[in-house]
Amino acid sequence: MNVNRFVSCAVALLALLSLPSRSDAGKLEKLRLDYAAYNPVCLIAKEQGLLEKEFAADGTAIEWVVGTGAPKALDGLEKKTLDFGGMAGSASLMARAGGAKIKSVYVFSRPEWTALVVPANSPLKSVADLKGKKIAVTKGSDPHAFLLRALENAGLSEKDVILVPMPHADGRKAMEAGEVDAWSGLDPMMAQAELQSNARLLFRDPYLNTYGLYNVREDFLAANPDVIARVLKVLEQAREYALQNPEALKKMLIQVGKLDEAVAARQLERTDLRKSAIGSAQQRTIKAAGEVLQRVGVVPAGIDIEKVVNDLLDGTFTAKFASAN
Questions:
Q1: Which among 4, 67, 164, 314 has the fewest CB atoms less than 10 Å away?
Q2: How many other CB atoms are found less than 10 A from the CB of residue 306?
Q3: Strand partners, 28
């Protein structure tokens, strides 16, 4: 066989294999979504089999994959083992800035999942008191962006504190052990620290938290706009149920997250499910997070943050939800 022809055939075969799994009739054979304790809307949808009911007549199988955070969600989207992946707004931005062809199509929550946490006996009273202090933080995360914005609002910068990079769980332990003065926390570990060791939230501001976003690949969006619209319609049903049945939602969170009831309740107190439409609020918050991460070198200087945010956010599918929200 001619070498060029062989290469062309191989490329064509790979292209076919990379397409979404469909039957000969053009139906999507399988729809793969992640779910996690940080995405309450999907907990409801999964528990009640709402997507299974929606796509039953199409013969589309629904595959739910346990989510553990942005790295796994992004890996699943890029490897096409996921069609929908949940991430924080800042993580979604960083993925897009890094070249991931993803689109954010739905807001599954506006969580206050991060705040600045200090031990129960800490003498610190304000963000300004953090000058010269050690702060545990996971670099490049939503808590990192939150910390940087909080410092800037207090007239400080990253150079005025001592950042101690470590995973979220280790940050909590270091804060409780007095190895650092503060921790840029993350729920549910933050709620656990409050309730189990009387840790105190030194500073909190829900508007400095980026949103919980459901993301899809650009190629999946282009090939399946009708599927995306139907999925989001179902998630809206789940969101409404969650708002009207908080106790049922709490029980699911306890089960999936393996949390104590008090911890689950505290986390849900800080989780706003009232709005799901993508719009200017997400634009502002995610852009601000991207800019502050860029100022400290986490996002490369040559990246146009505003363009990345514009390319990331797609409010087309949730435009009709805006008035209802």
A1: 4
A2: 12
A3: 22
